[in-house]
TrEMBL record:
This is Bet v1-like protein. InterPro entries: Polyketide_cyclase/dehydratase, START-like_dom_sf. Gene3D superfamilies: 3.30.530.20. PANTHER family: BLL4707 PROTEIN, SRPBCC FAMILY PROTEIN. SUPFAM superfamilies: Bet v1-like. Pfam families: Polyketide_cyc2.
């Protein structure tokens, strides 16, 4: 070989020679120099945020999975699912459109002010494998928004989530954050 081993073309040539030796022409995987990256699974991430016009202490008490229906207008109810496990908090969210999600609290910190949850069941079934979401609050300590709360709601989706799923999650989080602002304003 007269090319350097670090050359991408060299790697592809070696890969093709390997395929030639390992597979007969009838059973050989398709090869492409140009779209190898398209076969690598990647996760999609959604991050939405808002400044809520209230101190963190007023916002934080609403950030419990069983209380999301008190502010999120897309939810008709949220209730604790009994009998799952003494060590696991599972909440059943029923949406206005009839969709039902069971969400499992994965992590909760009253010190760092965040909650992380995953969807464990859905009716109707989801079109993707998984999503892990986190709602995180930060007190704003200076500037024109001093005394307010910065809220960030993120979601990490499995690689089989479509663009439509990601966009829908983005808009639902925006709507929920706007609903949170309204709910905190009413309780002031």
């Amino acid at each position: 070989m007269d090319r350097e081993l670090s050359s991408p073309t060299c790697f592809l040539d070696i890969h093709e020679k390997y395929l030639d030796r390992q597979f007969s022409a009838d059973h050989r995987p398709t090869k492409s120099r140009y779209n190898m990256a398209s076969t690598i699974p990647t996760a999609a991430r959604v991050v939405e945020s808002a400044v809520i016009s209230a101190p963190l202490s007023k916002v934080w008490h609403l950030i419990k999975l069983q209380d999301f229906a008190t502010f999120w207008t897309n939810l008709s109810k949220s209730e604790i699912t009994k009998g799952v496990s003494p060590d696991t908090d599972v909440i059943k969210w029923t949406f206005q459109d009839g969709t039902v999600l069971e969400v499992k609290q994965e992590e909760h910190s009253t010190i760092e002010h965040f909650i992380t949850y995953s969807v464990i069941t859905a009716k109707p079934a989801l079109d993707y494998t998984s999503v892990l979401s986190t709602v995180r609050l930060f007190p704003i300590t200076s500037g024109e928004h001093r005394g307010h709360t910065f809220v960030q709601w993120s979601g990490q989706f499995s690689s089989d989530a479509s663009v439509g799923v990601i966009e829908d999650a983005k808009y639902k989080r925006r709507e929920a954050l706007a609903d949170l602002e309204k709910a905190v304003g009413k309780s002031a």
